UniProtKB/TrEMBL annotation:
Segments crossing the lipid bilayer: none
Organism of origin: Dendrobium thyrsiflorum
Key words of the record: Hydrolase
Domain CBM-cenC: 29-165, 200-340
Pfam family, any one: CBM_4_9
InterPro entries reported in the protein's UniProt record: CenC_carb-bd, Galactose-bd-like_sf, GH10
Protein name listed in UniProt: CBM-cenC domain-containing protein
Gene3D superfamilies linked to this entry: Galactose-binding domain-like
GO MF, any single term: hydrolase activity
């Protein structure tokens, strides 16, 4: 259990500390009294008590900066912590960044300290937004940093710290919440070595069996015959160089989870800031249990990116497509097809992922739109001419 704070915290003569706004001029911090120089003004305990301290543990815990820090005491729930109401200073749809110096007291084991936003809407409904978290110990102060943005209208907004097990105290030295700095525009992408319209998928036509492909999970992959031999319509106009489809497809069986399916590692084949288009034919073995969702996705490190999806309502071949762009160098990128219910076989044919020139693509689409518009005008002129002749 946490040590008795009343014996360790120097809380004498707080009334003698001059009451002033602790927000330094120009720093735009919406947290009032961020360094506890004005005692506990503007701060409160969330389900627990809080104290302002100069030291703890017979002087073993001192502030990292300034003279004071706050400490919780009597925490009986993980969500107990220290909080501040920022309703009057918070602006909707504006991005904020938080920077806080935190620590724990009362346990030698490391634990998570989390910054959370509690938002109460005008209709009384509550929303909890996890901002960021950090592993904290009782050995040193650590930095807690993150960003958040709230789009909905809020009647009340409170920011608070929580996370450690009951009996473990949260220490807060300083907290700053201010407008997030605008990210400078990215440098122009290096596209000199990008070959547009050429697929980066290895053995996408399965001429070399299943070389380059691997099962995601414990499912089984085999090569089948009988898929469409034409390119999906979405890829025809963009795919500049390709082999004719030969009707082969990847048959995925023994699927015990919805996420199981064929996959391929494309980490070393991607260029940053380049738009890639995805195209494939997909099919399921059965829709007896209702429509089946089929999804092409990318696992970019620990984040899933949707590359397109389609709902199969019968056992025919469906076109699936989408696009994506990566702007931060990943350590691993895996493309995979997933979605149908466990036990439903999944078939994939002609999966293509290829870079597209967005400017050239826009010009092409505009030209096509203009051609359609001219065709419609010409058709209308021909119709009116025929009517005039008839009259």
């Amino acid at each position: 259990m946490a040590e008795n704070h009343s014996l360790k915290c120097n809380t004498d003569d707080f009334q003698e500390i001059s009451a002033r706004n602790s927000v330094e001029a120009g720093d735009e911090n919406i947290i009032l009294n961020p360094r506890f120089e004005d005692g506990l003004n503007n701060w409160s305990g969330r389900g627990c008590k809080i104290l302002v301290c100069e030291s703890l543990g017979n002087g073993k815990v001192l502030p990292l900066s300034g003279k004071y820090f706050a400490s919780t005491t009597g925490r009986t729930q993980n969500w107990n912590g220290i909080q501040q109401d920022i309703t009057g200073r918070f602006q909707r749809t504006l991005a904020y960044e938080i920077s806080a110096v935190v620590r724990i007291f009362g346990s030698p084991a490391a634990t998570v300290v989390q910054a959370t936003l509690w938002v109460q809407k005008p209709n009384g409904k509550e929303q909890y937004i996890v901002i960021t978290r950090v592993q904290a110990t009782d050995k040193e102060w650590v930095q807690l940093q993150g960003k958040f943005l709230v789009n909905s209208v809020a009647a009340k907004v409170v920011i608070y710290l929580e996370g450690p097990p009951p009996g473990v105290d949260i220490l807060l030295n300083t907290m700053v919440v201010k407008h997030a700095q605008k990210i400078p525009p990215s440098l122009p992408p290096d596209t000199e070595n990008v070959i547009y319209g050429v697929s980066i998928i290895t053995n996408n036509n399965l001429i070399d069996g299943l070389n380059g492909w691997s099962p995601r999970g414990s499912c089984t992959l085999n090569v089948g015959q009988g898929a469409p031999r034409i390119l999906p319509p979405m890829a025809i106009d963009s795919l500049a160089s390709h082999e004719p489809l030969n009707g082969r497809y990847i048959l995925t069986t023994n699927r015990s989870q919805t996420w199981m399916g064929p996959s391929q590692d494309i980490t070393d084949k991607l260029n940053l800031f380049v738009t890639y288009q995805i195209s494939a034919w997909v099919r399921v073995s059965s829709v007896r249990n209702g429509p089946q969702n089929i999804n092409v996705a990318l696992g970019v490190d620990n984040q899933d990116v949707n590359g397109g999806q389609v709902e199969a309502v019968d056992d025919r071949w469906y076109e699936i497509g989408g696009s994506f762009r990566i702007e931060k160098q990943p350590s691993k990128v895996l493309v995979y097809v997933q979605g149908p219910l466990a036990g439903v076989d999944l078939m994939v044919s002609g999966l293509q992922i290829f870079p597209v020139d967005r400017k050239a693509r826009f010009k092409y689409l505009k030209k096509r739109t203009d051609e359609v518009h001219i065709f419609k005008v010409s058709s209308l002129y021909e119709i009116f001419s025929n009517i005039h002749t008839f009259l």
